[in-house]
Specification:
15 strands; Tumour Suppressor Smad4; 2 domains; Rossmann fold; four-stranded parallel beta sheet
Length: 318
């Protein structure tokens, strides 16, 4: 079913994050002109510093009758907008304006405004999974957050979530690369206990598997762009499963060895690589970590539960 641009609803709501790593004020203007050329109107909602503003704006846009919500921002903005559309019939489209833009890179072939509007008018929304993270802060407080792309744990992942916004605007993805390389020289490995429920092939969610791994980084993946797909072969944002990848390399030289396997396209041949797939996973750590949730840092924790939400939101993809 294509997007319903009935005569009573020819409005596209654009949620714009002006703080996105590659955000430009002209992007919304280009989008407005492209929509107008197809007989569609635009209603702009600009995010605020308030937590969850993109989520609330997406929910409001859907309630106001928007035929589609277009998230113009990075992975954090896209994830919040998707969360706001759960349980509605309003689909989501993405015009990337962040630093990493991993979700957009996974599903779009570098869309400009005109190409995106063509997709919106002629494409069909596809159901995409989201992932729910529940975790307990060190003070005992309970937290819940959804994500679309990935959860990262460990110092290498922290290089992304703690990167300076000003440095990201100046140097883009180079900021992430420099921070991750620096972290590889002293990765400060953590011992993770990973307990899965409903793994691939399981017919009973009570089936479980528990493994312990001392690792420099752990990732819980929902979607990956082509350039990173080798990290977990077959990672699929519509299969109802989360891919858990642990980099069991614990120092610079073992990380270098693992990187050579990655470069050859066979990380699974490395003794430093562990992958699991599950509907739900519990993660416990031997010392506090700050989860990197679609690029944003969470509170320090030692206990997390990750649950896949199958086909939670409909997205226009290329």
């Amino acid at each position: 079913m294509t997007v319903n641009f009935a005569s009573s609803s020819k409005r596209a709501a654009v949620i714009f994050n002006p703080k996105g790593g590659s955000a430009k004020s002209g992007q919304v203007g280009e989008l407005q002109r492209a929509l107008a050329a197809r007989g569609l109107d635009i209603v702009q909602y600009t995010t605020t510093p308030e937590p969850g503003s993109a989520r609330d704006l997406a929910r409001q846009a859907s309630a106001d009758g928007a035929a589609i919500v277009i998230a113009c921002g990075g992975d954090g903005t896209v994830c919040q907008a998707a969360e706001g559309l759960i349980g509605t019939d309003t689909p989501l489209a993405v015009l990337p304006a962040g630093t990493g833009n991993l979700f957009a890179r996974a599903f779009y072939a570098r869309p400009d405004a005109a190409k995106l509007v063509d997709l919106i008018v002629s494409g069909q929304p596809q159901p995409i999974d989201m992932t729910r993270l529940n975790y307990r802060g060190l003070d005992g407080s309970e937290h819940e957050q959804l994500y679309l792309v990935a959860l990262g744990l460990g110092k290498i992942s922290d290089a992304i979530s703690t990167a300076s916004p000003e440095m990201k605007r100046r140097f883009g993805k180079l900021t992430y690369a420099a921070g991750m390389i620096a972290a590889c020289f002293n990765p400060e490995p953590i011992t993770y206990t990973l307990t899965t429920l409903g793994a691939t092939g399981s017919v009973d969610d009570s089936d479980s598997l528990s493994v312990s791994a001392r690792a420099s980084a752990v990732f819980a993946l929902n979607a990956l762009p082509p350039s990173m797909a080798i990290l977990s072969r077959g990672c699929n944002a519509s299969d109802g499963l989360t891919d858990i990848v642990a980099l069991r390399a614990t120092g610079f030289f073992s990380l270098l060895s693992f990187s050579s396997r990655m470069a050859s396209g066979r990380p699974d041949n490395s003794p430093h690589y562990l992958r699991l797939r599950a509907k739900k996973v519990r993660i416990e750590t031997d010392r506090p970590v700050s989860p990197n949730i679609d690029g944003d840092p969470g509170a320090l924790t030692q206990y997390m539960e990750i649950t896949t939400l199958p086909q939670a939101v409909r997205v226009i993809v290329s």
